[in-house]
Amino acid sequence: SSELTQDPAVSVALGQTVRITCQGDSLRSYYASWYQQKPGQAPVLVIYGKNNRPSGIPDRFSGSSSGNTASLTITGAQAEDEADYYCNSRDSSGNPWVFGGGTKLTVL
Amino acid sequence: EVQLVESGGGLVQPGGSLRLSCAASGFTFSSYEMNWVRQAPGKGLEWVSYTSSSGNTIYYADSVKGRFTISRDNAKNSLYLQMNSLRAEDTAVYYCARETSITFGGGPYYYYMDVWGKGTTVTVSS
After folding, report:
1. With contacts defined as CB-CB under 8 Å, which chain B residues touch A20?
2. Are B61 and A95 in contact (CB under 8 A)?
3. pLDDT tens-digit series, residues B5-30
């Protein structure tokens, strides 16, 4: 099966912009989805497809993709954005799904 | 309100069995593919199993293949995960997640897990 690679940890100053990336071969065939998970809570979908936000997700969250890399950008990070972020995508080599290892975002 | 509620978790000895359930409400359950995803303590998300909307197509992660069985009862709006021969490494929070796939204007399909339950905790320990 495929793998998706994320940086384990990223930090951003309050109000600044941060990009979280996800790399993997499956991203050449499928768009990534992005999930926010706060401690003790279930994951929440924040971005899907080319750059789509579910209802209720602030517009400071955006997504992009190029080649084998997908990115989640938070423009003007807020304290409440501090969380773990996971990417996933359909897997082009057998199993339906693959997850990235997650990125812990710290807002300073 | 669209909702998924898991149940059935608990403490079980190595080699034991558990059956998890996921009750769906607020949407047409029979129209959606469903997944089980787990998260070991302090670790990331791991996809476990998938079922098509009809239940005719099923997949498992290699780590659980031959030990876990996913099933669904569309008449009862419920998803299940039968877990046998449990190991310590199966200790995790287990989430059920609804899968949605859409296309805009005939373009590529977008696949994503848009609804998640709060999870149920499985602990495998003697």
Report:
1. none
2. yes
3. 999 999 999 999 999 999 999 999 99
